[in-house]
Amino acid sequence: MESWPATKGESEREQSAEVAVIGAGVSGLAAAHMLRDHELQVALYEREERVGGRATTRARAGFCFDPGAQYIHGNAPVSDALLLQRFATSELVSIAKPVWTFDSQNRIREGDPRQNALPRWTYRHGLLTLAELMARELTVYTHCEIARLAYMRPGWRLFSATGQVVAEVPAVLVTLPAPEAAALMAASELPPGLQQALLAELGRARYRPLLSLALAWPRKALPPTPYYALVNSDKTHPISWLAREEEKSPERVPPAWTLLIVQLAPDYSRAHWSWDDQALATATTTLVSALLGQQLPAPHFYDVQRWPLALPEPERLLDAETLHRVSAPYGLFFSGDAFTGGRVHLALRQGQESALRLLASRR
């Protein structure tokens, strides 16, 4: 990976790739590998410092935790092939304990035995490990936001936020969340009719916000539990997810400490979005105390991650066939969670499917 601007000469940088992938989340990374397997030159452009999107990891105060996606579902052909074969590593672990459920009345029950029988994959030092492994073999430019596209009949010119020409390529794959993809299309120079059609389709997607908190206490304050995590079953609790990071691997926390990941429900997140981090930590501690039936003191450490576009609403997912019917003839393709929801294994599969769609268009 290289931070933009790269050290290559301008002409080499503009002409070296056949496909530009905008966004280096796991969907874009999976697509890039599929395209490279078919001998296409690919460059990925990522506005953030790191790859992975919501499949990321933070390290703070001696703790290592995943503030976004929590694990990767097993028994899924595409992700199993990537995790267990192509990018196999001793860092990969299966979470041993099950996921239980709770309702709006704080009643905790055992979870679905069929779901709990499936592997839940993660990595000893964080879910970001997968994205970093995938990025090693790819050309990835970080700190590089693509702000505008221009169709060149054929091909595409990509511009940075400062108006710099970043690349000229025959094909583009956009893997941004649908609202960000729509903003990019609105700012771009597109063929007549294409912009309106794309904005209409991308505009159908709706996303939910998410406040994700990491809260740490001495382990004596929270005794061991028979579960790894709790998930709200009736969708009416302020908390949607609670998990113990040390159950993923002991390397995640210092000795004698416990770290909870608490992800708040969309409505609660929306209503408390502007609260400062300390107020959120205090309010969330109160919610956790009520759920677990014990009075917890103020956490010794807390961290807050705000995800404004965390999860697409399932009833508003986009249809890939409909979108690509209008975009594919121009060498413009899309992938990401707007088509599948927020699961990592689905994003990996969607990335490969979009790459195959792009490859088919070149025949």
From TrEMBL:
InterPro entries: Amino_oxidase (IPR002937), FAD/NAD-bd_sf (IPR036188). Transmembrane segments: none annotated. Pfam families: Amino_oxidase, NAD_binding_8. It comes from the Bacteria. GO terms for molecular function: oxidoreductase activity. Residues 116-358 form the Amine oxidase domain. PANTHER family: FAD/NAD(P)-BINDING OXIDOREDUCTASE FAMILY PROTEIN, FAD_NAD(P)-BINDING OXIDOREDUCTASE FAMILY PROTEIN. This is Amine oxidase domain-containing protein. The lineage of its organism: Bacteria, Bacillati, Chloroflexota, Ktedonobacteria, Thermogemmatisporales.
